[in-house]
Amino acid sequence: MLSKTVVSFGRPDPWAGDAPTPDVLVAAFLSSLRGSATGAGALHKAAARHFLFWIERQGITVSAVDDAVVRRFEEHACRCQGFSRHQPNRPTFTSKVRRFVRFMEDQGVITVPDDVEHLDAQLADYAAFLVQEQYSAVSIKSYRSEAEHFAAWLRVSRLRWDDVTEEHVARYAVHDCRCPVYRKRGTLIGHFGPLRRARGARRILGFLRDRDILPRADQQIHRDDDLAAYTARLKDHCGCSAETIRRYCGEVKRWLPMLRDPARLDAGLIRRIVSQRIAEVPGSTSLIATIMRSYVRFLISRGECAPALQHAFPAVRRFRLRTLPRYMDDAAIEKIIASCGTGTAVGIRDKAIILLLARLGLRAGDICQLRLIDIDWNDGYLRVRGKGRRPDRLPLPQDAGDAILDYLDRARPRIDEQRLFVRVQAPFRPFSSSAEIAGIVARVFDRGGIGGLPTGAHAFRHSLATRMLRAGAGLESVGTILRHRSPATTAIYAKVDVPMLLKVAQDWPGDVA
Q1: What CA–CA distance (Å, rounded) separates 431 from 433?
Q2: Does 311 qualify as catalytic in the annotation?
Q3: Which residues are registered as beta bridge partners of 382?
Q4: Who contacts 19 (Cβ-Cβ below 8 Å, separation ≥6)?
């Protein structure tokens, strides 16, 4: 276990005067340890002197010391004359060496890429922000601790905050911790250790990016001039949502190195890229071809490649109406609704969401975007913004309206937020995507012990259409409730009305199989 120490994350000033000698460094280090336990000074002195002696024998300057050098020292087969023989990977000894290295970093003897001004003050503001966001005391302590750990890991890894990517966060989550900060445990336990680390790192990065201390994630992704221009086209000319822009730019970035010279782009290269990506992600064939076509059209609009290339894309075979919609009968729907208990805030919120899915056939994205002002309590209707950002009005059923009122009265936190549904734990933010609605549906099924039914939020939409058709409603009425643009989209539900199909089906003109 590492020694407990107060960690400073401020930007170190360069060492004043000439380069310090080993004796001067050791003396300054010992003076910084005043107040430590009796005997600790002698042990730290021995570790510091041993480390300085070893790096001198290896021809390593003090200013070049980093984590790789310290690990080499930890693992070396000690034959250092005049020192007690060092046993490789002895934590109680090497922790003192790392504390000495940290001291030299703080004193400016070792240069570290500290590109965030006043990081100590930023971490203090971060803790105040967590309090403001109504996190519990335990969560605040955990997030503050992980932020300090992440800052220490970046310094040990010699990484700049500006250059941190999701790949670095993943490395941090599983790293073998030798960071010079006090940790309750040196090893990760179970599946949740890496998740806790990654969550803490993303939280502090989001805090710094929201305050423009660090560049935002989308700015990091789109640093390339061509990709930035493509992003602007998607947003301003095509009117794409932020999620669509993220998905398109993420895909383009995968094969952008092969398109550095658009003037040399030809049909063969387009087909090779599309074929390669389809082989890697076979379930996204149509989307990959669509994104490639969009980017090539962008290049054509800028005059960077031949206009005829927009016709060079391989045809993507699509099978329409080849499957039956998944649906649940009335008894299954009512069982799911009844399984949502109203004794907790989670149950109250989930029941309101399930009722909106079941009674109105809303998409998961529709529920994410619902706002408080979208409910007209006097006339009893909902204003829904579906695909294409077209506003529609739907009648609000009595039981769904009662569930929403119960949620607003007993479960929804008192926050300044226009979105109707928010998370039940701090920081009480709206859902970030429709995937969270699908997750709520899955958890409702698990809590109720419900199995053997179609999963996902969209299954409620299919079930509503099926029930309406079997009750005698026409396809036009079903399409109105589901807000379909084309009658062909609604026609798929005609296949699930088996009694009606039996009436119009003709006899098989052959022998009975």
Answers
A1: 6
A2: no
A3: 375, 394
A4: 62
State the helix-helix crossing angle for 330-338 and 458-470, rounded to 10 degrees. Answer: 140
Cβ within 8 Å of residue 443, ≥6 positions away: 350
Weakly modelled stretches of the chain, pLDDT under 50? 1-7, 10-11, 184-185, 219-223
Q: What is the structure's pLDDT at 115?
A: 62
Q: Is 264 helix (H, G, I), strand (E, B) or coil?
A: helix
The answer to whether 202 is a known catalytic residue is: no
Which pLDDT score is estimated for 222? Answer: 41
> Of 197, 359, 461, 467, which is the active-site residue?
461
**N- to C-terminal Cα separation, the chain:** 75
Bridge partners of 425, per DSSP, are: none
Q: Is 387 a catalytic residue?
A: yes
Residue 66: both structure tokens together:
């980093």
Separation between Cα atoms, residue 134 and residue 153, nearest integer Å: 28
SS3 content of the chain, % helix, strand, coil (to 5): 60, 5, 40
- Give all strands of the β-sheet with 381-385 in edge-to-edge order: 375-376, 381-385, 391-395
Which residues on adjacent β-strands are paired with residue 376? 381
Q: What is the DSSP string of 294-349?
A: HHHHHHHHTTSS-GGGGG-SPP----TT-SPPP---HHHHHHHHHTS-SSSHHHHH
- Whether the CB-CB separation of 142 and 183 falls below 8 Å is answered with no
HEC states along 101-117?
HHHHHHCCCCCCCCCCC
Nearest to 492 by CA among 172, 484, 92, 173: 484
Q: In the structure encoding, which two tokens stand for residue 280, read together?
A: 């890697």
The model carries a pTM of: 0.61
Copy the structure tokens of residue 481.
Answer: 């409730």
Which candidate in 359, 363, 412, 462 is catalytic? 363
User: What is the per-residue pLDDT across 280-301, written as a single tens digit (0 to 9) for each?
Assistant: 877 677 888 888 888 888 888 8
Contact 215, 209 (CB under 8 A): yes
Phi, psi values for residue 418, rounded to 5°:
-80, -25
301-357 residue pLDDT tens:
888 888 888 887 767 666 665 666 677 888 888 999 999 888 899 999 999 999 999
Residue 191 falls in the annotated catalytic set: no
Are 245 and 234 in contact by the 8 Å Cβ rule? The answer is yes
Q: What is the 3-state secondary structure (H, E, C) of 121-175?
A: HHHHHHHHHHHHCCCCHHHHHHHHHHHHHHHHHHHHCCCCHHHCCHHHHHHHHHC
**Number of neighbouring beta carbons within 10 Å of residue 159:** 18
Task: Give the integer Cα–Cα distance in Å for 68 and 192.
Answer: 28
Asked about 458 being catalytic, the answer comes back as yes
Q: Give me the catalytic one of 98, 359, 462, 484.
A: 484
Of 4, 216, 272, 387, catalytic: 387
- What letter would DSSP give residue 73? H
Answer yes or no: 72 catalytic. no
Instruction: Spell out the residues 6+ positions from residue 153 whose beta carbon is closer than 8 angstroms to its own.
Output: 172, 175, 179
